[in-house]
Design brief:
20% strand, 20 strands, 4-stranded mixed beta sheet, alpha+beta, 429 residues, Amino_oxidase, single chain, binds flavin-adenine dinucleotide, globular
Length: 429
Amino acid sequence: MHLLTLGGRVKQVQPFKGFPPFDLGGEFIHGSNTVVNKIAHDSGWLVLPSSHCEDEEEGTKIYYKGKLHSLSSDQPEIKQARDTWSKIINSKYTCQDDEGESVSDSVQIRLEEKGLSRDVLDVIDWWKMKISAGSLVHYGVREGRRRMESKYEWGLGDFRLAESYSQLVKYYLDNSVHVDKRLNWQVKEVVWKGDDWSSSNLGGRILLRNQHGEVLTAKYVVITVPLTILQDGDITFIPALPVNKNAAINTIQMRGAWKIVCRFKHRFWPDKLQQIYSVRGFSSEIWTHSCDSPDSDVKCHVIVGFETAEPAEEKSVLSGQEVLDGFLSHLDEMFGTVSDPHPATDSIMDHVYFHWSNHPFIRGGYSSPTAHAYDLRHVLASPVEDRLFFAGEATSLRSCSTVPTAIETGTRVADEVCHSAGLNPCAKL
Ligand SMILES: Cc1cc2nc3c(=O)[nH]c(=O)nc-3n(C[C@H](O)[C@H](O)[C@H](O)COP(=O)(O)OP(=O)(O)OC[C@H]3O[C@@H](n4cnc5c(N)ncnc54)[C@H](O)[C@@H]3O)c2cc1C
């Protein structure tokens, strides 16, 4: 098994002494019925609802044109955005068939056909698309619907592991003690067929070469690198991957993402407020989190800022200080009052910021529902000549982009390899 780093996009930091680690990448379990919930249940881990507020009206807001609105607000642009999105994507409760089969798979084209204003388009973009790392320009209807269907299957609530996703990383390490794991082994070349291959003494095995020219051989290879790594051509395949595989790699979108975790001296936001979608804001999503110290009465008041897609990529050139300043100003604008105009700037204690586009071996957030990619997902996931296999979140045929779906693709590919090797399906971790 070749890994550059343990955990990949599951990564923790423990910036606030005495409190559990924070997840800088995957953090929530989207649903109550995923493979992660099952592992957590069987392992006896504490799983917490991400929101302590039962009432969504109070707990989740949209920040639009200087005001916090409820998700069911009658504010005209918000209402129009909600209704339009529901008609296009929410296939559970609405019938799309009345739109006919000839309509475009591009959400942007469909919305433009409806003649919606720029404001409504932006509300849809920031409220509905950024959370799946998508954006108006490339979001796909069919993939968006598939993502929605999976949400219903797994359950609509969001949860988190009390001790962070580090529990899951440890779980897999404990369950793979006999696996030969190599860190900092960057695969640069995969020779899997052709003249070089048959004239060598590889005995039908695939050759892998790393950044130092070191070589390993294997009968089957599973490629699980982020989509960006394949798009950027980090790995040379000899011979090249089939044309349709490359088309899938280059069509499916995986754009940038960053996260900032800020600790404040006191809580300056309303008690029940848990989550904000900020339209055209400095960060498109904001959530609050207050946790207790296991050893004392001290509270840790945290606000997390999160952004994906093109606006996130634009910030990849900013310094950490610039992002912190921009984020705090955004919070001041939202929560400042006449008597306390800069509540965030004045009460910041500490922070951690991480931009995933700048991670040398990830270079983005996660793949997003993409126009004209519905069938290409299957192409991306399919083995090449039963020798090269493909896993990782972008290859999920249910819903891309999450930790549980990444795990599911690993199980799928393990079964595919076993099948090719004439073995019984592998044990499921
Ligand atoms: C900011 C952020 C927030 C997120 N939030 C959530 C969330 O709340 N809930 C959720 O479920 N999911 C979330 N996700 C998504 C989730 O983290 C990912 O979908 C999932 O972890 C992807 O797992 P993976 O195994 O497909 O890829 P990765 O974890 O990225 O693993 C790929 C590995 O390939 C390695 N690699 C790269 N190049 C090479 C090479 N040439 N040779 C060898 N190895 C290489 C990388 O170092 C990495 O370790 C989030 C992601 C981000 C970035």
